Amino acid sequence: MKTILYSSILLILTFFTGTHAQAQHHTKHNYVVLTKKVPQLQPILITAEKLKEEDGANFGNFEVIICGKEIGDVTDPSKIREFISKAEKLGVQLVACGFSLNKFKVDKKAVPKKMKVVENGILYNFQLQKKGYKSLSL
């Protein structure tokens, strides 16, 4: 009787341990980067590309939030067009901080349509971190 009981416990533990390990293995890796300068998108997007290669099927979402006094650069096609194109190819979401747009009097209508605008970029960053996103601020 003891043998059956111990065998049953061992079988159950093996099943749950194996299931837990599989669940961890298939977890998506999500990333968020907060930056103040559009030119920093170059190394950020290179990083996203490398992480996408490394993570393979486990690569999840990658978002880049642009905040600060240079937010107006997102409305200059010569400064942002190439980055939007590369981000789109990589599946990276570019995000403009609405608080910065308002503070520095940048017309939200001038923000490229392919960019997401959030009310407060810093708050949005924290909200993504609470969802498990790995975060970096530059």
TrEMBL record:
InterPro entries: DsrEFH-like (IPR027396). Gene3D superfamilies: DsrEFH-like. Residues 1-21 form the signal peptide. It comes from the Bacteria. Keywords: Signal. This is Sulfur reduction protein DsrE. It comes from Gramella jeungdoensis.
